[in-house]
Amino acid sequence: TVKMLQNGGRLLKAGSSVATNVEQRMGMATLKDISIRLKSVKNIQKITKSMKMVAAAKYAKAERDLK
């Protein structure tokens, strides 16, 4: 069988749940992690767009008040 070596020096079978955990700790994201991250990014984009609109409105008001 194929085995993987973990930092602690223990041998792990490839495909075992522990080996999968090692892969995840090494930076491999699951499909669920990726979809959650995409949803978060989209929500952050919406918030940023709203903040830009508020800033533009405040700027326009300040410009009008100067005249």
TrEMBL record:
Glycosyltransferase recorded as keyword: no
The keyword Ion transport is annotated on this UniProt entry: yes
Cellular component GO terms held in the UniProt record: proton-transporting ATP synthase complex
Keywords, alphabetical: ATP synthesis, CF(1), Hydrogen ion transport, Ion transport, Membrane, Transport
InterPro entries in the cross-refs: ATP_synth_F1_ATPase_gsu, ATP_synth_F1_gsu
Annotated TM spans: none
Molecular function in Gene Ontology: proton-transporting ATP synthase activity, rotational mechanism
Membrane topology, record value: Peripheral membrane protein
Signal peptide: none
Similarity remark: Belongs to the ATPase gamma chain family.
PANTHER family the record matches: ATP SYNTHASE GAMMA CHAIN, ATP SYNTHASE SUBUNIT GAMMA, MITOCHONDRIAL
Descriptive protein name: ATP synthase subunit gamma, mitochondrial
